[in-house]
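Structure (tokenized):
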């Protein structure tokens, strides 16, 4: 399988300002791209992109570590990279969704998604 480098390079394109949110963190505002806009970019580049948890529990669900986080494999254009996400100490029904969204952003950064916001 040949890696589509042209498509992968599209992941590094900056996000429009209207897709960049602000996250209050320690008295400052951090720029971030939410998982919805991240998902849209992934779908634009590779409609067959996929993620999967690195580990599963005894029920076949994503295995969370002692911090409530999980490791994932994100595959885009046939390339797979690891990422980690957690729910920032949240508990309850939405915490796994928060951890997955965080893991997608983390793994996506390894592809260059919103990398300019980190630099």
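Design, position by position:
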């Amino acid at each position: 399988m040949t890696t589509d480098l042209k498509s992968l390079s599209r992941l590094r394109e900056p996000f429009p300002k209207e897709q960049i949110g602000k996250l209050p963190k320690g008295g400052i505002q951090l720029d971030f791209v939410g998982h919805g806009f991240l998902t849209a970019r992934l779908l634009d580049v590779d409609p067959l992109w996929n993620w999967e948890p690195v580990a599963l529990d005894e029920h076949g669900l994503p295995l969370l570590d002692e911090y409530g986080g999980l490791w994932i494999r994100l595959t885009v254009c046939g390339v797979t990279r690891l990422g980690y996400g957690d729910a920032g100490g949240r508990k309850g029904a939405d915490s796994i969704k928060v951890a997955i969204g965080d893991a997608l952003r983390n793994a996506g950064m390894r592809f260059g998604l919103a990398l300019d916001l980190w630099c």
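Reviewer-requested clarification: The chain has a mean pLDDT of 91. The chain has one domain: 5-117.
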